[in-house]
Fold these 3 entries.
Entry 1:
Amino acid sequence: MKILVCISHVPDTTAKINFTNGDTEFDTNGVQFVINPNDEFGLTRAIWFKEKQGAHVTVVNVGGADTEATIRKALAIGADEAIRVNASPTDGFFVAKQLAEVVKAGNYDVVICGKESLDYNGGMVPGMLASLLGYNFVNSCVGAEIEGTKATLVREIDGGKETLTTDLPIVIGGQKGIVEEKDLRIPNMRGIMTARTKALNVMEPVAADAKTKAVKFEKPAPKSAVKLISPDNLDELINLLHNEAKVI
Amino acid sequence: MSVLIYTEFSEGKFKKVALELASYAKKVAESLGTTVTAVAVNAGDVSALGAYGVDKVLKVTDTKLDKFNAKAYADVVKQAAQKEGAKVVILSSTTDSLYMAPIVAVGLEAGYASNVVALPVSTNPFQVKRNAFSNKGFNITELTSDVKVIALAKNSFGLVEAQGAAAAEDFAVTLNDADFNIAIQSQDKTTGKVTIADAEIVVSGGRGLKGPENWGMIEELASVLGAATACSKPVSDLDWRPHSEHVGQTGKPVAANLYIAVGISGAIQHIAGINASKVKVVINTDPEAPFFKVADYGVVGDAFQIVPELITKLKEFKANNN
């Protein structure tokens, strides 16, 4: 089993979000970057396949040289090797095109992506990649088993779960649940040391037309102050929810 | 040239998000000087769509499509868009629609923008405002492709009734075997309970509730309000409540009309996941809890006294207002 895990380099979930350059760019100043959490759940499942079933795990990121610390972290967690496609990931279709080239060149039969990145929240790369490759695709996976060329996936649906079976090759859109939070790994010193010697190959992008562009960013309007209601006056809360907010 | 929408039909009627989608598409179509066509799969009576601005409904009927299958459904939407010559295709933000949207986009060589929260900023060039950075920012995205696919964020537009009747038309689609490479083995769906995805009101509990044995009052409050129950991440990590109830940045997103947080301090990741909700109420003993900074209404005090009293008062309120 050859697994490719696609990772995004995103602001830490606690990061303050600001914009710069006339609100046309995300302000990276003072921001800590991490492996996109949805991708990290998938990466951890891939490492499980490596340890239990002998899979070979490659991680890939489309990004500039500044993402290499994030890629090294994925290697420290246990991926065997890494690829960085040297391009700015500005459009989901463009990124999917780059990843499709990597998949074809490396002949991967299992591709694991997070269902969405927590920066642009586009939620499109896994599905576009599967479509470009003609691979089977299951999104929002909270369970994944692979035996030979057969895959069994558990997908989250509105109000429950669904168990699906299909054949490789496959693109899996992962999220929390494909492994549990407690299964996530903090790289140990040995992992960090060996990560330094693992291959991180840089590939140049192929030509692909972007189909979208981010024109501008805005921050949400400042919130007006909370209205505090005394615990002795809950009738007032009901009154406000009914007559002011009109939600009950 | 019409604007095409995919309207989800379930348990004998169109989902509310489908009607919201119709309302939104009507306004988009007006600004483009065109009409709205909906495509619906195995739907019964489609007249409800006309009341929200749909001009024409393409009815696809096929037993192979009884259960959702992303690739096959994407094929349906693609063929409907091609038949109508649609330049703008709009989907909702249910799990199923978000699953198939990127497949539809590749099929139509279209650009795709998800999480759209308002009418287009401009239609030429085609620019939309979308939620990004987990509700911590907005992003104006321009779709530069000929055909555009967008997904409307849930509860971001609301329902707008229109005068009109939708003309229904049977629509035959060509499906191929490759569309059905993924087989559904089983489905495990909660029945008779409001789901977080569909809920207008969500009642959520945090670690302040001290233990799973104290969730009875959360469930009762939810039941009085016809709400779904949810929980914070620590609560699901501690296995007090099932993972399916975890809402927040790495859990389920919530875009309800009313979100009531009980005993949740309001970590930034939690807020990110629920901030698309319109009205937020916080009940917490700690007046310094960060949640009060983003809430609309707050009660500082002991949830174990406040919630039971609130339940009693809400029952009276409901009895007097029905």
Entry 2:
Amino acid sequence: MENNLIMFNSVTLAMRAREILGKNNVFSSLIRTPVNLRNRSCGYSLFVKSDFAKAIEILSKNRITYLGIASVDAQ
Amino acid sequence: MIYFDNGATTFPKPRSVVNAVERTMRYYGANPGRSGHKMSLKASEIMYDCRKNAAEFFNADSPENIVFAYNCTTALNFVIKGILKEGDHAVISSLEHNAVLRPLESMKENGVEYSIADYSPDDEETIDNFRNAIRPNTKLVICTHASNVFGVKLPVERIAALCRIHGVLFCVDAAQTAGVVPISLKDSCIDFLCTAGHKGLYGPMGTGILAINSEILPESLIQGGTGSFSSDRKQPSILPDRYESGTPNLPGIAGLNEGIKFVMKKTERNIEKYESDLALRLYQKLKKIPGVLLYTDSPKPHRSVPVISFNIDGLDSEETSTILDKRFNIAVRAGLHCAPLAHEFFGTQDSGTVRTVLSVFSTREQVDYFASSIMTINKFKKELKKVAIDI
């Protein structure tokens, strides 16, 4: 399964990332980081259904730091 | 009631501010940044939207650089106590509020020293006074953007540049200017901007902002739950979580967001022009009353904000404000306005002053009624003195 999740340390950063992606026509949803990926932290993630590579590129270009990427079951 | 006490907090608030507070209390009252349910995410969105608008408003680097505080005093304490350590020195102006003076005074016990640079109506002289006050161990300069008592502005852009040359951090207290005077952090050398949310930004009380424009960050004074890095015993270092522990004032921030949008729509230039014109009208009317003592030149947009302090000869400032309240239904503030340094400088430390601060909701009719009330009080001050004493 391909990556579709970008994990962040704070809800503020996750929201800024979502906003920047939206401005670049990449749709994402803010969710709580799934428990198995959370590493005992309580972070937030962006679920990016399509254009994942483009999303990562946009975030790097805008110097938005994220904790990591993962794949989750869209269901 | 005619409300000219807008320097303490603006009143009334825009309808959109009141509605946002109510809407949040009614429909989105979850804890932001903590949970994953829809209501908590909506609450987080409200916080983020306000951060984004505040960042745009002050031209800050990013929304993360906007830290919510409970008022301007808290924001100033974050900077002063978070930056200064034993052996450090700070410089402040002679017009500072107790929000700056008292934290520094308390830090004397921790080995922190401070000097006072005198304000002068001549900017060159003010700059020289700051330059002369800077020492090799000066770490921070804190300066009010405009006096909360007399309205006079300080040349903060030039003081900021001076600080940059000397490698000193610079913090501005914009409690009386945010929302009236445009401030652009990215275009300035201001490192920290502290302001109230409930004055010129028209938000509810219990809101304040610390806008950060520096790579050097103050230590966090309050540690606790942030909703992030929960497994780490140490306070997160990232912005804004570094300074925002505990449940935030979500209804207040929702209101502040609408207040900022209200000011952005009107524009600070228009607000400044409107309020300055009214202040000038008031000043000119007061100037014509023989018993009225004014302490500054007539208000000019580039030199002052619409704050006018005065006294009526033969009356204590508290007496004048009490008479205005009881007999004329006018709200103003009297006394020292938490700024004893400014009164020492203007020679009003014994009498205090009556302070009038206008807002976008003030009108010419109110100004005219106010001036005629002062004329009446001045004429009948002996008789009206009793009004101030009667309970």
Entry 3:
Amino acid sequence: MPKPMADTVKIDGVSNSSARSSRHSLRKRISRNWELYLLIAPAFLYFLIFHYGPMYGIQIAFKNFMPARGITESPWVGFDHFIRFFNSYYFWDLIRNTLTISLYQLIVGFPLPILLALAFNEIKNGWFKRTVQTVTYAPHFISVVVMAGIIVTFLSPSTGIIINIIEWLGFTAPNFLTDPAWFKTMYVLSGVWQSTGWGTIIYLAALSAVDPQLHEAAIMDGASRWRRIIHINIPTIIPTITILLILNVGSILGVGFEKILLLQNPLNMSSSDVIDTFVYRTGLLNVQYSFSTAVGLFNSVINAILLIAVNQIARKTSENSLW
Amino acid sequence: MTHSTSSRSQASKSGVTRFRAPKAAALVLSFVLGASLLAGCSDSAEPKAGSQESAAKVNKEGFPIVKEKVTLRMMGPDVGVQKWANMPAFQEMEKKSGISFQFDNPPLESFETKKNLTFASGEYPDIFYASSLTQADEVNYGSQGILLPLEGLIDNYAPNLKKILDENPEIRKSITTPDGHIYSLPVINQQSIWYRSPMWYNGEFLDALKIDHNKLPKTTEELYDLLVRFRDEDPNGNGKKDEIPLVSVKLDDIRSWLLGAWGIYGEDIYNDANGKVHFARTEDGYREFLTYMNRLWKENLLDHETFSQTPEQKKAKGANNQVGLFQDWHAYFTHGGEPTTNDPMFVPVKSDSVDKPAVAIHPGLSTGSFAITESNPAPEASIRWVDYMYSYEGAMLFDKGPEGLMYKTVNAEDHTKKWLPLPDKFNSREDYRGTLTPNYGTPAPTLLSPDLQKGLKEEFDVWVDKQNEEKILAYDPQPPFPILYLTPEEQAEISSLRSDMDTYVQQMEAKFVTGQEPLSGWDNYLATVKQMGSDRMIEIYQTAYDRWKSS
Amino acid sequence: MAAVIKESKADRIFLLFTYLFLAIALLCVLYPLVYIVSASISSPTYVNSGEMWLLPKGITFEGYQRVFENQAIWRGYANTILYTVVGTLVNLLVTIPAAYALSRSDFVGRGFFMGMFLVTMFFGGGLIPTYLLVKELGLINSMWALILPGAASVWNIIVARTFFQSTLPKELQEAAHIDGCTNLRLFWKIVIPLSSPIIAVMALFYGVGHWNSYFNALVYLNDEAKYPLQMVLRQILVLQEMNSSGIGTATSGETAMAMNARADVAALLKYAVIIISTLPIIAIYPFLQRYFVQGVMIGSVKG
């Protein structure tokens, strides 16, 4: 993989003639592919205008933002908001809960769509496949409010169907809704239920790129389905898996707050309170733009560091990485 | 402070340089997209008028308010029933006053977001109506000149409101910010009594146990005994032990009613008769409340789903005739069926540690419902317009719409009215009312006097009034804490103190009640809350209270 | 066919397990879905008390009736379809070319562009500066305020880029260059036709995003006639749910009564609204599925 930055650095260090030739080839490569700049131009402009344009807003993390004064005129407070966050009584609880929920979600929720997509890929196209695919995709569209409502109804200790089934089987059901030990499982599994089918889509698209000739040849050689999955299908989707994994690690501190908020109660709080719910609650007391922005910035920095780290690992150990 | 000034100038400098980038980018974008896309979207700003000039155009008394027709921009929350421009209340008022409006009505649920963006964008409506401006909004935007101070305008142009404020100095105190100005007008509700919706007994349970509705528990021990009977004696008569004596959702509904048994007026900050400010959650009485609730929990008298159920689930239990004592606006909302006078209101109970129970009452006031901004070309006319809402006629117009639609006056002298038949396409009078006026589910500036309802009360309403008399007003109730403003500094400090404290207090309450944390842990709890700054918080509120009192 | 003959016993067992796995997955997901459909036509009391657990009980169509009573809903549908179609087209026009360019290892500056895009995944100015920008551009209250600020997502660009990288053989591009084919022609005539799976996925991801979005509409639109479906539905729901938040400001027993009556319908509406708003987009999915099985072409190009 050529890296333009590295190329230009090298130019100064090496002998004149080779520098000239490399500069020459660089220019040649740029000019030969000038159309690629045309292709990327809309995206470049978009990010420049709509993302870099408003980015001056980050400074409110270091200010005491007052809407009427505007962003630039609000007074600076330095790292006050960050310090307040770090000094919070619950800081370490928040970090721990956020990380464990995220990791739990990643460990359980990440492989399942892959398995499901591989299974879909094995069976032939027909009503059964179409039905399962469409049905598993549907829960993605259930709004968070309704989802939380269903969870509470199903797990209600007095009338919940799941509790009834467990007790009918002769076990004593734990109180899923208030027991801190069960919160994360409840949260993650309901999330898996809701998003696994949706998550297969991207892998199904990647699997469609498998060369059928490879399969035909493998069948000729007597390779079993299992072996063909391992040696043909999985390698095809490995790049997608790697990239999605890296991106997921890069959002590890961002656990969505809406669903947690709806399932949270004072009894499971020790296990359910995450950074985003904390920010939401704090923001409610008083419109604290600056504090929310500061915590958001903290999240972003940690996420970015993690993403860079994971990407480095991926670069070293495979051919697939973000850059 | 030299430090802060230097950093501010730095701020504006960097702001300028950074702001150039998006502008350049905007140019590029408009070039790329073509001008057609950008056409027809620009807002027209109305010219600002000088104060004397605008004052000259307004009549000091009577209708019309303005000598020439004026159109103002009004922002207010939409509840999605009817466009404000089509509401008879506004149309009638326009005819009378000569003032018409151009409305900006974001949906109620997102009003807060839109309101903040409006302030941030620097383009304000002329008037905020039913806008629930927060106290912080008023203090901040008022001091920055975005909201106009209204006290001068009130003195000169708002005779109705001036009369109310002169007769009720505590209302004037409560709407005046620490800098001495009034930036918003309140909802004054003389009809409201309940600080929170009351608690009710299941009348069928009482009847099954042969309990006289006039001899309800008056002490915590009597209440306990009754709850035990609810639990054990199958009052719903279905042969199953499925009764839930006391039902609640996270205790928020019943807490303040029960706390009164230990002399505590509110569940958060409250003041006693001597003007001393207390934080309920660190009081001894609160510990006794927790002990009592823990006892109810242990003996299965308090619903074990208290901390996990939704309000809908609670209602379903009520509709199933499973609950004995519960909170709701009216009993039949939870108990199901038609309005009934058979479910009596909870009588305040007292413990041994006090002589009489503390009972809270609604302060009858909420602030932030009407404000005028600096962009308003006709502040005098605007205040005259809103002043009408504080008269009986104006309040009536915006409460029930113009006469002849919902109601008819029977006696103009004493304001007795009667209902007119409901048009067929509406399910209830309220559904109809929502199409007539913006004062429907929104905090609109007005004076809700008992006179508005004269002649319009049904038998059930009269019964509820009587329950209120006997079980709330007879107990010498007081509002837990007056409506008052904090300075921006106080506000900021309180917010930062509370962010952890509220969470901790809430969590520990649930643990104490359910027994996950034994009550022997109270001292530890107290120490932690104090460490989180509860004393400082009380101090700040005490300062604010004293300032309010002496103003 | 050779494949059929060679299906071994082990393979058949394996296939059996695959079907079993899918059948279990189907059941797990199906139950709550049936529950939602049943709940949307059952009396709310039964739903809340847990008595309705599979088949509808106390059947009522009031939820649907209330939603469709509202005239704004049809306009909402029309607006949403317009925003979704135009928005998705813009998304694809920005995303696919950028992803392709980034997938080319001989593209000088791709590290720079990649870095520039990635930064925005983590750092942004927040709502207010973005609002001011949109205002400055004169887009407030126009369809473009819903489309342009979200014209591309880094996540999707990266996913599409990965697809191009792993499916388009290098030889293809070399062959094209030798033939004197320009990059634009290569992109348009060869890359696009070969990439229908990823284009379908991107269209779905973006399309669903537009379909479900309401926040931008809430922030940037003032004119109710322009509200998308989700905004209209939220308005209906909120009106019903005023009970919980509004009761504090309920000024009379009458108001409280009306709000209480509505709260009962709110439970019904919640479920009906889900079905009304998602049926169209669920119905689209089976049609998109056929684009996921077009691996044949790449093989044929290679061969």
